[in-house]
Automatic annotation (TrEMBL):
Family label: Belongs to the peptidase S41A family.
Keyword Hydrolase among UniProt keywords: yes
Name this polypeptide is given: S41 family peptidase
Region named Disordered: 399-478
One Pfam assignment: Peptidase_S41
Gene3D superfamilies in the record: 2-enoyl-CoA Hydratase, Chain A, domain 1, 2.30.42.10, 3.30.750.44
Residue ranges annotated for the PDZ domain, each copy included: 88-156
Length: 478
């Protein structure tokens, strides 16, 4: 049933992770349409005609129609979307994990773009860019004042074109220009290492076409380096989601064969599906089982899954499946709550429609929509707590968000008060940057949640959050 669907999807850019993430299924359109509301369509045609004839200046007809479709779709929920030619191209790039650019993972710091890591083998890697380098200018444009998305767009472009980056390297206290030739980049969604004898860490930053193959390679590397693995941390923090088949495969790597991973339910018959931990539910057409080479020990190694408010969609499927089957201890913060399925239907050769067609449910039948996965053990970002976690955007904060479909929504009267307090504290710290505690790099020795996960695996005391509480689904404002 569900495994007969062709699976596709999209992972959002890091700057908007969680807000635009999706787990997507490609299906055929309905064979018949409901009767059209002729009176309303006549009004639409009348408005179109008035704009064409009466507006102060000529308006492009195709733009009017495109905007009308976009408005109709965006009024449904935060994840339904009309793709014009440009956005459909970006959608496909996100699904494949390929794009044309310089090849760096970035974040924002003090209004500048900070290099988290150059992608190995990329033009930026070959040009000698290093972690913690700050990009101050892109060609002749100052970075300060640009959003992260704007900076990304300026660094991307056509293959074999050049971009000049001005770099400030703090540890050398010098500024210098670097000219880099853009080329196709394959993003790396899997990282991992043996963090100490007997214990390893694997991080999934997205679920893309190459994620499962890269995950298998990384697991094999870890077991070659540490054959007697005593515990593993699967890190899904700030993983915005992506391909459903990849989420099912990663879950299947740890679960008994044929265990239920996730179910979906919607109006269409194709939306009512059960996905299990079996090759037919995740292997690509014509391919073999990508998990076939995994060591058998992976099915039973003690496992902790790390999540936070940025863990959404496909990452919530994995965390929910492993939690429901009691295969892993989920630690961290309550997840984003993106529990809906989007179907992508082409409207032509270069346009398409992404529309919400189902909710998805964990193996126990629980909807994650607008609620998220509640960890078994709540852990803060740092030993000092997570004072600004309440400010992070979640599904329940999005306008027109879909309800869970499992009972009435509840409004937390304390949430607005907590947010206002956190905003004031953040503003105060912003006036004194030297006192700001920045979150350490994931996987480093100073990564507090990772250290608590390792303590959990070793049976040692864990510093549990004293402030985090489960956040209920909030009442929507109509």
């Amino acid at each position: 049933m569900g495994h007969k669907l062709k699976i596709t999807g999209w992972v959002a850019a890091g700057a908007v992770a969680g807000v635009l993430t999706t787990v997507s299924l490609q299906t055929v359109a309905r064979g018949s349409l409901a009767p059209l509301p002729l009176e309303e369509l006549q009004q639409l045609a009348a408005v179109f005609g008035m704009i064409k004839s009466d507006y102060v200046e000529p308006v492009d007809e195709s733009k009017l129609i495109s905007d009308a479709i976009s408005g109709m779709v965006s009024g449904l929920d935060p994840h339904s979307q009309y793709f014009d030619k440009k956005s459909f191209k970006e959608f496909r790039e996100g699904t494949s994990g390929r794009f044309v650019g310089v090849g760096i993972e970035i974040t924002q710091e003090d209004g500048l773009v900070k290099v988290v890591s150059p992608i190995e083998g990329s033009p930026a890697f070959r040009a000698g860019l290093k972690p913690n380098d700050l990009i101050t200018k892109i060609d002749d444009t100052a970075v300060r004042g640009l959003t992260l998305n704007e900076a990304v767009k300026r660094m991307r472009g056509d293959a074999n074109t050049k971009v000049r980056l001005t770099i400030f390297r703090k540890d050398e206290n010098r500024t210098f220009p670097v000219t880099i030739t853009r080329e196709e980049i394959r993003t790396q969604s899997v990282r991992g290492k043996v963090v100490e004898p007997g214990y390893a860490w694997i991080r999934l930053s997205q679920f893309q076409e190459r994620t499962v193959d890269d995950f298998v390679k990384k697991v094999d590397e870890i077991y070659k380096a540490e054959p007697n693995l005593k515990g593993l941390v699967l890190d899904l923090r700030n993983d915005p989601g992506g391909l459903l088949d990849a989420a099912v495969a990663v879950s299947a790597a740890f679960l008994p064969e044929n265990s239920t991973v996730v179910t979906t339910d919607g109006q269409l018959a194709e939306s009512k599906a059960v996905y299990k931990a079996a090759p037919e539910f995740y292997q690509r057409r014509g391919g073999s089982d990508p998990l076939r080479s995994l060591p058998a020990a992976l099915k039973s190694v003690p496992l902790v899954v790390l999540v936070n408010e940025g863990s959404a969609s496909a990452s919530e499927i994995v965390a929910g499946a492993l939690q429901d089957h009691k295969r892993a201890t989920v630690m961290g913060s309550q997840t984003f709550g993106k529990g809906s399925v989007q179907t992508v239907r082409p409207l032509g050769p270069d346009t398409g429609l992404k529309i919400t067609t189902a909710r998805y449910y964990t193996p126990s039948g629980t909807s994650i929509q607008a609620r998220g996965i509640v960890p078994n053990v709540m852990i803060d970002d740092t030993a000092e707590g997570s004072p600004f976690a309440v400010l992070r955007m979640r599904e329940a904060d999005l306008d027109k968000h879909l309800s869970s479909g499992q009972g009435p929504e509840k409004k937390d009267p304390e949430l607005d008060k907590l947010r206002e307090e956190a905003r004031k504290q953040l503003e105060a710290e912003a006036l004194n940057p030297g006192s700001t505690n920045k979150t350490p790099e994931y996987g480093s020795g100073k990564d507090f949640p990772l250290q608590q996960a390792l303590a959990q695996l070793k049976g040692q005391p864990v510093l549990v959050s004293k402030t985090q509480v489960e956040r209920k689904e909030e009442k929507k404002e109509n």
